[in-house]
Design a protein that fits this description.
This protein has 683 residues and is of the alpha+beta class. Strands 2-3-1-4 form a four-stranded antiparallel sheet, sandwiched between helices. A four-stranded antiparallel sheet has the order 6-7-5-8, with helices on both faces.
């Protein structure tokens, strides 16, 4: 019989070989459809998105706009100016430009600016990058502008895939070795997580082909982190329960069956909660956020499938020896451990639950005040942790032309009304000049130069004034307008997605725990963790990391990740607490038992998840670094403070009321009536 059961394990492995073979042709194509253009991140309904789409249809297609900057401290020499003119002429001779570049000298004579625009690359990112690199090879000055910035950003995102994956794998491997203390066991969940990540890339590509979901470097990076982080969490829970069952059951197959029955519902509920929380991002208007939702959900679900099918099959086939040297023998008892850290924490929470709850809540509230210190919206030139050439050029321009716009604002208007729009734009306060550009397909492009530096408050006011003055049917875009739209749209998305996530997660918890109070405690806890994590970010982003701004999407994405992932650990804890109560334990004792038995697993899972997101802190994009920091800090707070002290102390204080209005609360009332000598009610 045991041999037949082992054959079932081999059968599951064979099915996975087929799945991997079917996924292979699709997985390798995901990089081909990954797009990191501005339009792939912009809000779907914003003016700047409409401008990006319309300009792609104008004669020549989308334009690549560059700024060539020649600078010498103390002043440019005649030879410098001659070199600049010759090199710019060579660029014009080798590439079709929309207009002849004109030199714009700075007042101090130390800087020379040439605006270069070409429709040669069109919307093809590879052609755009080739054009930018060719210009950089031709000129001796700095090459900046929106086109160069897009190329630098694209190269950074392209460079993330390898280092992000390798670093994540290395971090998870080290932690698993320390947790399992086995030279072999750590490799099994790591290999399974890698296969889940491979499968998720294939499924994401299929979704892109079928539903045209947006795939960006940000979304694929987040998906990889989630697969390894969440997948390893599920593996830790399953392996821990499997080890327990091996001591009670002679055969690995039966032990695994019991382990899946024991922790399977919690793993299924937690992964479903994370996936549903991520899918709430589909309600966002930001293209990048909408794309993040399904890709993240795919990652979590692929991790779930792999960890509940492939991982059990591998463990059953390998047998007990995979745990060497700490093999759990049948009938053995685990070593009598010293009083665990979590038992001590639980005891302190049980002795003074009200004091622990109030102190912890006050600490979180105090730290959350750090959100008031968050730096303003992140500017384009501050998006890199290093300084690529495009950013260096922008900084040179900002210093050389402090009172002049060096980045055009693009207006597109119906051709029939373009003359009036041009005159209105020229008369708008804050506009230095406006010129007619290309026309086609019923639209005309107008290039507007503000009288203020890019992304300054004054330029932002000019953009808003233009939109107000030009009215409906005329769209105002360009890099600065894109940043403005991102900030405004993220604020709008927070007002929609945050309540939606709370409602969805709350409903899932109510169904799972058959209670209203316990889900409310868990949701309140994760929301408090989110606020505290953002507050810590506000205290360190500028002072410690030197970040000059905060990504407009940080609050929304960190909320979705922290609430969905934080509820994971709450489900693990509350599910075990509910099991103890169903076995007849009193609520206080059940809460402490649940903490003692699941605390080590939750702590290990929290450390792994926090470490995987912490990998993002070392990535060269400020947006990713900020997101990784906030989520890593939030997971640690949730694991070692909120889940351990606050949820436990709240459960001890409320007693069986924590399960109201579910059957466990009714059981409490029944027991109370029985203790007073009254006939117990039928439950």
């Amino acid at each position: 019989m045991e041999g037949r059961k082992r054959i079932l394990g081999w059968g599951v492995l064979a099915l996975w070989v087929i799945v991997i073979a079917l996924a292979a042709p699709l997985a390798g194509k995901l990089g081909d459809v990954q797009r990191d253009r501005a339009v792939d991140y912009l809000p779907a309904s914003a003016d700047s998105t409409q401008v990006a789409k319309i300009t792609e249809q104008l004669p020549g297609g989308d334009s690549t706009d560059l700024v060539l900057v020649y600078h010498r401290e103390g002043g440019l020499t005649p030879e410098d100016r001659a070199t600049a003119a010759r090199e710019v002429g060579q660029v014009a001779a080798e590439h079709p430009l929309t207009s002849a570049p004109q030199a714009v000298p700075s007042e101090d004579g130390a800087t020379l600016l040439y605006a270069v625009s070409s429709t040669e690359p069109g919307t093809d990112e590879a052609a755009r990058d080739a054009f930018v690199h060719d210009v950089r090879e031709t000129v001796s000055g700095e090459v900046g502008g929106p086109g160069a910035l897009a190329t630098d950003a694209s190269e950074v995102y392209d460079s993330l895939d390898g280092p992000l994956l390798y670093t994540t794998v290395a971090v998870v491997a080290v932690l698993l070795i320390l947790i399992y203390r086995s030279p072999f066991l750590w490799l099994v969940p790591l290999v399974v997580a890698g296969i889940a990540d491979y499968l998720s890339t294939a499924v994401t590509y299929a979704l892109h082909q079928g539903f045209d979901i947006s795939v960006s470097g940000q979304s694929t990076g987040g998906m990889t982190i989630l697969v390894f982080g969440a997948g390893t969490d599920y593996a830790l829970l399953l392996v821990s329960r499997y080890r327990e069952e091996l001591r009670r059951t002679p055969h690995p197959y039966d032990a695994m069956t019991a382990a899946l029955r024991g922790c399977g519902p919690a793993v299924l509920a937690s992964s479903g909660t994370v996936a549903l929380g991520m899918l709430c991002l589909l309600a966002a208007d930001m293209n990048s956020s909408r794309g993040m939702g399904p890709t993240a959900a795919v990652g979590v679900l692929c991790a779930l499938v792999a960890m509940t099918t492939l991982l059990p099959a591998l463990l059953v086939v390998l047998g007990r020896r995979v745990f060497w040297p700490l093999i759990p023998a049948y009938g053995s008892e685990p070593k009598a451990a010293r009083r665990s850290l979590f038992a001590a924490m639980g005891s302190s929470a049980g002795r003074r639950p009200l004091a622990v709850l109030l102190t912890g809540a006050a600490a979180l509230a105090a730290v959350a005040l750090g959100t008031l210190n968050l730096p303003g919206a992140l500017k384009q030139e501050d998006s890199f942790s290093s300084t690529p050439e495009a950013v260096a050029a922008m900084k040179t321009l900002a210093a050389a032309y402090p009172q002049t716009g060096t980045q055009p604002i693009t207006v597109v208007a119906p051709t029939a009304a373009s003359s009036g729009v041009l005159e209105t734009a020229r008369s708008t306060q804050g506009v230095a000049k406006a010129e007619r550009g290309r026309s086609g397909d019923g639209w005309t492009e107008i290039s507007v130069v503000a009288a203020h530096p890019p992304q300054s408050p004054a330029e932002t006011a000019t953009i808003r004034e233009l939109r107000s003055a030009l009215g409906e049917g005329v769209y105002v875009g360009g890099p600065s307008a894109e940043q403005l739209d991102m900030t405004d749209t993220n604020a709008r998305d927070r007002g929609i997605v945050v309540p939606l996530v709370i409602v969805v997660v709350l409903l899932v918890l109510i169904v799972l725990l058959r209670s209203l109070v316990a889900p409310l405690i868990l949701v309140a806890a994760v929301v408090a963790v989110w606020g505290a994590s953002l507050g810590i970010g506000g205290l360190v982003f500028e002072s410690l990391f030197g970040f000059e701004g905060t990504d407009p999407g940080l609050a929304l994405l960190s909320f979705v990740f922290l609430v969905a992932l934080g509820v994971d650990y709450g489900i693990f804890l509350m599910h075990r607490m509910r099991e103890e109560c169903l076995d007849g334990a009193e609520p206080g004792a059940a809460a402490l038992t649940a903490l003692r038995t699941t605390g080590g697993v939750i702590a290990s899972a929290g450390l792994v998840l926090a470490a995987t997101f912490a990998v993002l802190v070392n990535m060269p994009m400020v947006q990713l670094a900020e997101l990784g920091f906030v989520i890593a800090v939030g997971v640690l707070l949730d694991t070692f403070l909120v889940r351990t002290y606050l949820v436990t102390s709240a459960s001890v204080l409320l007693g069986r009321k924590v399960w109201w209005p579910g059957p466990l609360a009714d059981k409490a009332r029944t027991r109370a009536r029985s203790d007073t000598g009254r006939a117990p009610a039928r439950v």
